Amino acid sequence: MKLLILGGTGPAGIKLVEEALAHGHTVVVYARSPGKLLESISQNAAVTVIEGQLTDVENVIRALEGVDAILSALGPGASHPGNTPLAHAYELLIAAMKQHGVKRLIALGTASIKDGSDKFSLAYTAMITGVSLFAHSAYKDIVAIGETIRGQGKELDWTIARVPILTNNDTREVVAGYVGDGVTKTTLSRAGFAAFMVEELEKNEWVKKAPLITAQ
């Protein structure tokens, strides 16, 4: 498949691009700072790099040309603006997807995006409360991303892969479930995140759902 990957220059995004390539997909990386890409990615014949901002509608449309699905590793940074820029970017992206007939979107989220299948978890309540208090702009944007995808993107075949604390170990095994289900944990490797994203692309087991993805 031909994939558009967003957030592909960050630590999780680089793993995602590498995983997609390992599965034989061709990749369009849309990035504000393409120089952050590893040379092994930017020089790969199966990779097309398009530079642009998430608000550059014309560039986004160019990046969407011939694409079968969009995989997004976009997430808020340490000092995040308060005007929900990522949710706004998803609004523009979803509008462009509808215009060009691209139906599949698999996006990174966190447990701050609530789901009706979640149950009470003391650990996750503490984590989400902490983010809400000490990184409120990031929290607000993540919540808005969930609302945007579920609302404006309701006609799409979307999946929100909600992640906990991301780590750098190489463990690829993951479990997909919901908060407080007695199975999911509180950490996930970036390699595991990438593995789930590409597996979900190929198997479509969580369409129109927002599972919590964690280490086993």
From TrEMBL:
InterPro entries: NAD(P)-bd_dom, NAD(P)-bd_dom_sf, Polyketide_Oxido-like. GO terms for molecular function: oxidoreductase activity, acting on the CH-NH group of donors, NAD or NADP as acceptor. Coiled coil: none annotated. It comes from the Eukaryota. Transmembrane segments: none annotated. Residues 7-202 form the NAD(P)-binding domain. SUPFAM superfamilies: NAD(P)-binding Rossmann-fold domains. PANTHER family: FLAVIN REDUCTASE (NADPH) (PTHR43355:SF2). Belongs to the avfA family. This is NAD(P)-binding domain-containing protein. It comes from Rhodonia placenta. The lineage of its organism: Eukaryota, Fungi, Dikarya, Basidiomycota, Agaricomycotina.
